[in-house]
Amino acid sequence: MMKVGNPQDNLSAGKQQVLDSFWLRFDRQFPTEEACLEELFRRAYAAGLVSCRHCRSRELDREHGARVGRCRGCKKPLWFTAGTLFRRMRRAKPWLAAIWLMEQGVVLNSLSLQRLARVAQSTALHILLRVRTVIEGNMAGEFALVPSASFLPVVCKRSRVTPAKAHPRAEEEGVHRKPADQRLDMPFPARGAPVSSAAQPAAPGLERGGDLDCWPAERAGRTGKLADDLQEVSHAARLNERERLVQALLDQAPQKFDTLCRRSGIAAGELSATLTMLELAGVAVRLPGDSYVRAVADAVVACPGSDDRASDGSGGLIQLFMDFVRVHNHGISRKYLQKYLAGHWCHRDRHSWGAGSLLLACLRSGPVSCRQILEYVSSPLVRVLPSF
Fold first, then answer.
1. Are 337 and 378 in contact (CB under 8 A)?
2. Beta partners for residue 285, in sequence order
3. Phi/psi of residue 365, nearest 5 degrees
4. Most CB within 10 Å of its CB: which of 15, 20, 24, 163?
């Protein structure tokens, strides 16, 4: 009797073969640590990012593959990775490999990078999170703000902010309990800025625009207003009184059926029928565990400065991202949701993130510390580009 293999195993084997072929190409081009450092220096120097901080001279004496040179003018030492994302990196090859593979459109996670670059998985994860931070800092232009609760079906991995003995989706409720000024994402540092700086930085990276996570304090009220605007639903005109009552109780955070039953005062059988009608109307979404949230179509908010097209197709992009996560990551944490969305943008938008663009953005960015990564929490409203 023929044994039928698992299609998922075949898919994983195919993905591994693709990764291995791309890794061989990278390894032939950059076989040693010195070759990787030389590539970083070449790209930084060509972009005008290497100069003495004392006399601003670009002339220096440097051995091949060295991280440090000496200024010919003032004779001071010069580390060309200082003030960049690569500040204090131990090995250049895993960093350059992650960036090079992402520029080729390869889907990369911490396990695959660990296997290919032969580093610890924690090291691979922090490399990817830092690179995604650079991408996130360049999410400018037209985009849509979507409640993070829209992505809860693929949230299944715990993080350091997951409540004890609770499902990872419980993080969503904790985020909504925080004051608006404490929900803003981690500021993205500009090149040369202090690691501990919390001030609004200069716009880094690509010419598309600056960082949109660095909202100043006066925008905290606007964030709260955007959340309030989510309570207004375009379907109200075609809902009856009971459906409008239940709709008003729905939020971006999942609510249990029993909670809705208690808050609405509606009998369980009638509430179940009402929620079914709201699902058919595109107002409510049922999640695993008999929980309900407001539907994505009602939750998309256009960012100030964008036109009505910002919400077109956002629901499709959300589903596209969740399908992508199920295939390549088998689930994510809510804490780093925005960074996964940034990585997905890099994978899909080959025009903006072609060969050489991501490395240049990393060289132009400021350093991202381990503490910044650990303290990062995605906002209740995350950014999704309307098209790729």
1. yes
2. 293
3. -80, 170
4. 15
Torsion sign across C-alpha atoms 374, 157, 122, 366 = negative
Specify the 3-state DSSP secondary structure of 350: coil
Look up residue 11 and give its DSSP letter.
H
Contact 39, 30 (CB under 8 A): yes
Sign, Cα dihedral of 377, 231, 342, 324: positive
Rounded Cα–Cα distance for residues 235 and 220 (Å): 28
Strand partners, 77: 70
Half-sphere exposure (Cβ direction) of 363: Cα atoms closer than 13 Å: 22
Return d(Cα 373, Cα 377) in angstroms, integer: 9
What are the φ and ψ backbone dihedral angles of 131, each rounded to 5 degrees?
A: -65, -40
Judged on CB neighbours under 10 Å (0-12, 13-18, 19+), 358 is buried
**What does the block give as tokens for 94?**
């895993």
Per-residue pLDDT of the chain (388 residues; tens, 9 = 90+): 444 454 445 446 777 888 899 999 999 999 999 999 999 999 999 999 988 888 988 888 889 988 899 988 898 998 999 889 999 899 999 999 999 999 998 988 999 999 999 999 999 999 999 999 999 998 877 777 888 988 999 999 999 999 988 899 889 887 766 554 444 444 444 444 433 333 333 333 333 333 333 333 333 344 444 444 444 434 444 678 888 888 888 876 788 888 888 888 898 888 888 887 787 666 777 776 778 887 654 444 444 333 333 344 566 788 889 988 988 888 899 999 999 999 999 998 888 898 899 999 999 999 999 999 999 999 988 988 765 4
Q: How far is CA 33 from the centre of its chain?
A: 29
Of 259, 263, 254, 298, residue with least CA distance to 278: 298
Give every strand in the sheet of 301-302, ordered side by side. 301-302, 144-147, 381-384
